[in-house]
Amino acid sequence: AAKRQGRNAYALFEPAMYASVIGEAQRRLEIEHALAHEQFVVHYQPVVDLRTRQLIGVEALVRWRHPARGLLGPQEFIDNTEVSGLIIPLGRWVLQQACQQLSRWQQSRGEHTFTMNVNLSARQFQYPGLVSDVRQAIEQAGIDAHCLTLELTESILLDDVDAAIETLQTLRQLGVRLAIDDFGTGYSSLNYLKRLQVDILKIDRTFISYVATDADDKALVEAVVNMARALRLRTVAEGIETDDQREMLRLLGCDHGQGFLFGRPAGPTPSPRCSTPRPRHIRPAPPEPPAVL
Ligand code: C2E
Ligand code: MG
Ligand code: MG
Ligand code: MG
Fold it and tell me: Any idea what DSSP says for residue 280?
């Protein structure tokens, strides 16, 4: 056992680990630089009403236009910004951009119910300046707070549930809507769901992928939709890619949907669009079997 421990202690000084610490620090500097030089962009993905197929809003999703590596998705840098705290200025910037873009779209569409969804990480949620950042973004853009939805994951409950509930209440008092993102993947109990007082449940893509082909996934989604309805919550299905999924979700009573079927996240266009998918009569080819080595 001593030998084992010795090895672990030695492992602390492995060159690879040293390199990874340096790597983290370097990436942090790079992200700071990117913020200062406006290398981040916000893309928007349509959210549609599953019954009428009408576009009802968009979700803001951040990207990094990296000078050497091209357009990077959040999975490439969000974790680093959370550890380093840079998610606070980055998140504030996304919030401001999204609110301003919402204001432009509402004016050009003459539709003041059009909504904007913005993601918040647990770190942002714990930041004491969050409420004032949100209030400022709304005021500066001159939008109605009800048109802004903040998306949170169940991870906000990990630390201090009472503190989280208090923050949620303060946000609600601003008039913004609240959504639980990736619902079903965390472990909030039904009891929390009642206490949380959110408005929307976004059902995670992992349940949507097989909703039209797997009886268990269908049953789970149906149960979530029914529970949400009983609690007077809206449901949004994430990651709809096929007509079969859309049709099944509509039958199950899910309110809204998002996914590549309706539109991928894209830079702001003069007016956001979503493709209105027609029923497909030709089925896509089945996936290739895995190659045998
Ligand atoms: P999310 O909030 O659950 O966003 C949905 C993700 O699913 C997005 O990935 C979106 O591009 C992707 N998606 C949408 N429809 C489909 C589909 O039909 N099929 C598939 N395969 N994927 C689909 P993205 O943009 O890479 O974002 C990943 C996550 O990064 C987001 O998950 C969110 O948690 C986080 N994120 C994005 N922008 C921000 C931000 O501004 N602030 C914070 N704190 N987190 C962000
Ligand atoms: Mg989201
Ligand atoms: Mg999600
Ligand atoms: Mg997700």
Answer: P
